[in-house]
């Protein structure tokens, strides 16, 4: 059989969104109530448009999560719980990266090292294998790849172009050249172009500049990216340089991308620590875009930018201040499952 697998764009039709419910044994323990509220709001928003699959650590956690969701009047017909062990809930980086060939699916299981060994990650690294053994997916196989890569480090337009950052991939693989990394990523992810960003970072981000906090492809040869218009902010020089890099990128046909710069939120501090409040960390659904909201005056302006970039989708704001306390946001805690992957 020919290998015609490809990595779908996130705006292509999905079966479901995969998440993991926070609990007292995760890093959320200190502020568990706050983050649970965010998860309830997230599931309520997702189930307006499509199903959600929720990993739970045990039966008691499922019972509790189900009670919270029912109290919020969530459509439980669109909720599916699965038992799994996990160190934390950042499923963008630990869940399956799925390629599709018609009705066949390839789940890529890259190594997860806790973002370069910063955190314990042994259970997270086993998550794809655990999920693949429970009749959750349809007509698929798993390809295990001994190479550290997180889902938040890459973004694809669904047509063979990948966007990533040099800082992250170089940190994970310091002995590999850019050409070597491009060839490996292109081969595994079925891409024929890899575009690299050399600038861009967020204080409070411990992923070494994941691209999903900085810049994202959008339909119609467009890129949405996090800008900073405050010359007195510590991010201004780097994000301005990143914006110039993005403006210099070209589509496969040699044209510039249509650009959608996102507004900049006021600094959000936690005991003096700057938190990474990026509007680029949004989640695309069937018919909607869920946008991280931070209770900032720029929230509505960011929603207006996303409405222009995704004119056929409803923009739904989800409160995410609780998430950035642990250095991530909305896209980081979710992983889309392409249409047809989920079993009945």
UniProtKB/TrEMBL annotation:
InterPro entries: Peptidyl-Arg-deiminase_porph (IPR007466). Gene3D superfamilies: L-arginine/glycine Amidinotransferase, Chain A. This is Agmatine/peptidylarginine deiminase. Transmembrane segments: none annotated. PANTHER family: AGMATINE DEIMINASE-RELATED. Pfam families: PAD_porph (PF04371). Keywords: Hydrolase. GO terms for biological process: putrescine biosynthetic process. It comes from Pseudoxanthomonas indica.
